[in-house]
Amino acid sequence: MPVPPAGFAGLTEEELRAMEGSERQHLEARLQCLHNIHTLLDAAMLQINQYLSVLGALGSPSPLSQGRVPVVPGSFGLGGFDL
User: Fold this and answer.
1) What's the pLDDT at 15?
2) Containing H/E element for 19?
3) 54-66, pLDDT tens digit by residue?
4) Predicted model pTM
5) Which of 25, 60, 65, 79 could form a disulfide with 69 if both were Cys (CB 3.0 to 4.6 A apart)?
6) Cα separation, 21 vs 31, whole angstroms
7) How big is the CA angle at 36 (ends 32 and 38), to the nearest 5 degrees?
8) Phi-psi region for residue 77, left (φ > 0), alpha (ψ -120 to 50) or beta?
9) Which residues of the chain are modeled with pLDDT < 50?
10) So what's the pLDDT on residue 39?
11) Taking the CA of residue 37 as centre, how many other CA atoms within 13 Å lie in the half-sphere pointing to its CB?
12) What per-residue string of b and e applies to 3-37 under the rule 16 or more CB within 10 Å gives b?
């Protein structure tokens, strides 16, 4: 698409209407993209909030999350000894 002139006085009525229609379609497409992005961000924030609420409900970290393996008698393969 050629660059429009600095002033629109040199354009005919038909050219102005064609330019306006094309610009409107592009603007509508941009607005739809922004709406989609907004929806995706809302969904991401909802998931983050759900994650944080579950994390808060779990309470203090377990020994597994601290890098230690619990020793349970009779547990093979978990680091415990079967005595």
Assistant:
1) 84
2) helix 13-58
3) 988 888 666 665 6
4) 0.49
5) 79
6) 15
7) 115
8) left
9) 80-83
10) 97
11) 6
12) eeeeeeeeeeeeeeeeeeeeeeeeeeeeeeeeeee
Helix (H, G, I), strand (E, B) or coil at 9: helix
CA geometry: angle at 64 spanning 74 and 45, to 5°?
145
In angstroms, what CA-CA distances link 62 with 58, 65, 68?
Answer: 9, 5, 9
CA atoms within 13 A on the CB side of 13: 0
**What is the number of residues in the chain?**
83
Which two three-digit tokens encode residue 28?
């509508």
Give the count of alpha carbons within 13 A of 31, CB side only: 6
